[in-house]
Every structure is written in C-alpha cells, then in structure tokens.
Amino acid sequence: METTDYCFSFFRKPIQNVEPIRAVSIVDVYRYIIGHYAQAQTEALRLMQSSLEAKKYKVTHFDYCTFSGLFRKQNLHGISSRFFLFLLFPVRSGCKSVRW
C-alpha cells in the first residue's frame, strides 16, 4: 500500500485481518456505504434479533477502515501517518438526542 493523499487504511473482512488492501478517502467510504458493496450483509444484519449474534456477524462479514490514519499493519507500531477526522452532524431543531 502506498502513502498518498488519502486519509486512512481500508481492510477486507474479517476483522482479524491486519493487512490493509489500500488507502481510501472519505469520499471512497461514502461510495462504499451508499453502494451495493455491503448491501446483502447490511440487510442480513438488520434482520438479526440478538445483539450478540449481530456483533459476531459484523466482525466476520464486513470490511472496515481505520479512520485514525494510514497503517502498514493494524497495530500501534504499524501506523504510517496519523490523521484526525471530525464529523459534524447537523441537528434538527426540536431534536432532543441523536441515536447512534
């Protein structure tokens, strides 16, 4: 993986995979989220009743990113570049809380 102007590392499932496949930008992640790439897994996850079952499913069926920087390997010693990402969410008037 080359260090580029991108912000963070992208890893293929499962979560035990510590080798990134490429560097991605926030736009790439947005396209991944709204695209068809994880649609089947997301739909299966939404049907699950048990939170324990859902947690186990997520770690084995979803690709993931390290939003804190670029990594050669996912661990404290593998970081190539550290970045900070701040996401601002607009809050509608009258909304008392944000559900995560």
Structure overview:
This protein is an alpha+beta fold. It is built from three helices and five strands. The strands form two sheets. It has a three-stranded antiparallel β-sheet with strand order 2-1-3. The radius of gyration is 16 Å and the shape is globular. The model is unreliable at 82-93 (pLDDT under 50).
At a glance:
The chain is α+β, with helices and mostly antiparallel strands.
List keywords for this structure.
100 residues, alpha+beta, three-stranded antiparallel β-sheet, two-stranded antiparallel ribbon, 3 helices, 28% helix, 17% strand
Blueprint of the fold:
Layout: E1 8-11, E2 22-24, H1 26-34, H2 39-46, H3 51-61, E3 64-66, E4 69-71, E5 79-82
Antiparallel strand pairs: 1-2, 1-3, 4-5
- β content, as a range? 15-25%
Overall pLDDT score: 75
Structural class: alpha+beta
Radius of gyration: 16 Å
Spell the H/E element sequence. EEHHHEEE
Distance between the termini: 32 Å
Query: What is the assembly state of the chains in this entry?
Result: single chain
The overall strand count is: 5
What gross morphology would you assign?
A: globular
Uncertain residue ranges: 82-93
Task: Going across the biggest sheet, name each strand in turn.
Answer: 2-1-3
Sheet with the most strands, sense and barrel status: 3 strands, antiparallel
Percentage of residues assigned to helices: 25-40%
Count of helical regions: 3
